[in-house]
Design brief:
195 residues; DNA-binding; homotetramer
DNA sequence: GGATAACCGAGACGGTACGTCCGGTCTTACC
DNA sequence: GGTAAGACCGGACGTACCGTCTCGGTTATCC
């Protein structure tokens, strides 16, 4: 899809992603402009338009680059045999990330941008949400196999029941998003699903 | 707060709210501009700026006007003594509204605008979300009093557990938002909370 | 043709014309941009685009405003009864203007822009060249009536013969444009035409 | 001045000159870009920048190549002993060339470009205008020697008097440039000069 | 019932950013 | 080492809207 990726300047790519994240953190997503990103990155606007279709796409890449830089890149959800304990661990990590100031602003921005830009949503699904969702499905199926969850349980429903309250509180509610809340959500959801 | 509401032209007010809703429906929120609303409403831009602080505020009013026009204006959540049945009823209505094409686009738009505009969020909380939330709390407390829910239950947590999955699926997931899903979420959440 | 001339800001109009002339004088026509004019004039770009169709049109107006400011606004060519003497006077004035540094750069620029922009050429003809040409025709016809020129002489040809060499040297030749040259051209052309 | 002319691709050179002429003819000089020429010629931009300093320089070469292709490459102005007749012949040929659609657009373009680009002007003088001017001077001096023109006549002045009206009408006037006009200009100018 | 003040439509204004085009330079791979 | 290809930084284009600011015209109170 990109013009000719082989000749692409890695230097400019990094500068653009860094500048985008910095600007979103400093002035917010709405006041972050492509022009501003280009200027701060010391890059021509065309270099951004050549490789990304929109401001949101730049931010998505920036966010992916950021999480790839982390050591704890999740390969698999923990599977100790105790689903509830494992999910609490995972959910606390999720809450920690969602409240990390480095991630919070750009991720909120992306989450809303996705609602208006189908192309961006497709990218997000393919590169961020999809892989994560597959890990969740895997872990839940493993729990089904182990008898921790009913065999006939609808996995997609289960995922929304477990993670939905957390994401809802993150984006839509004014109540605080804490580790305790994560634990309570997991406990309650697990209890509800086990029936 | 408004200059002098008594002299306000009701005709212009209606035309603005209608045009705003129409435009959001036709071209999407992002491509709806104040200038566009003014032009379609046959109104000077200043008339919009005089009475509303932002595009989102216009839309919030438009949405409120829309739901006030409905007959089924909710005064109280049903309370038949069977919490689960009552909630299923309520949740099905919510899902119906969220998937109604007249509401869907503007409500999604508003939901995201709120994330970036604190003043708008305050209005939203005060005039839409707050009243609803109070009804939910009331109904849940009534259930506590009736022994259907544990007395020590954190009501705010309960609300997020029950409604979170639905709103999460509405805004963030690609899975369909159906009446069945509403029922399942309520059933599962209730079972989890009753423990 | 303009949107609504009555509400036009005279202040901005003057600032734009002045800035345009200044910039053409300082950096040349090619490096003068609409953006640059707007910036120097302290004016939004749209204010230029609202009232002028092109950079050349701004310059034409600026030039017209400049010459309107002069006291010696020509109303009629002198007519003392001695055509050759009168024309020498006029031609020396023309040469003086063409070599005046305030006029030279913008007028050269305009003269070339006209070759590529038919709309601009029409304006130029109507507001600058045409009126002047009519004065010339008038004076020559008066000379015909007085018997100083043959009655059957083609006036358009005569004008090109008299003024052509001067404008040619101004724009195309590297030889200097002097008052003596003006005199010689008039003398020689008159002699050629009288035959 | 060019890097190493020996390795130069004749194929590319021709393609560039042809494309330049074609584009100027089709979309005009202003909308002809170096990128456009390169693209149409199937050539890298660098290949143009390596061998020519500017768009105008390409066009000058293209024009020279075009006239070299003509059979009637002027080596000398005709000298039959009748200056007026000779000049009429020459002037009619000039008019024919200036109104030839193949030459007209690019030559107008070049004539104006020269006003803004001193380097190009130097090239133009050296390779097109200068040689022609020398031929004209030669022919006029020959006429002086033959007694057809006064011995003390300023040759440069004479050239401007004879050719000025034609070039002026070509570039600046809206009146048509015809063979009759050429004849009349020569006749009148000759009469004026002979005095 | 005439003055007057607020609202209204219209739209010009100084700005910011858009997404595109092209200038001139540099880099890569090929021949 | 010249070439086709094209990425790069940068500057300007002409457009869309922003939010503010007059303009006249029209109500709708209040003296």
């Amino acid at each position: 899809m990109p013009p000719n990726a082989s000749r692409r300047s890695e230097r400019s790519r990094r500068a653009i992603l860094d500048s985008a994240l910095d600007l979103v953190g400093e002035v917010g997503y709405a006041r972050t402009s492509i022009e501003g990103i280009a200027a701060r990155a010391g890059v021509g606007k065309q270099t951004i338009y050549r490789w990304w279709p929109s401001k949101g796409a730049v931010l998505l890449d920036a966010l992916l680059a950021l999480s790839e830089g982390e050591e704890g890149e999740v390969e698999d959800l923990p599977d100790t045999g105790d689903l509830e304990a494992d999910l609490k661990l995972v959910m606390r990590a999720t809450v920690a990330e969602l409240t990390d100031p480095r991630y919070d602003a750009p991720m909120r921005a992306l989450a809303t941008e996705i609602l208006h830009d189908p192309a961006l949503r497709a990218q997000w699904s393919e590169r961020l949400d999809g892989p994560l969702r597959r890990l969740k499905e895997e872990r839940l199926r493993s729990a089904q196999a182990a008898g921790e969850l009913p065999g006939e349980l609808d996995i997609a429903l289960a995922i929304d029941l477990i993670w939905g309250p957390v994401f809802h509180r993150w984006l839509q509610s004014e109540a605080p998003l804490t580790a305790e809340f994560a634990d309570q959500v997991v406990a309650s959801a697990m209890h509800g699903l086990r029936g």
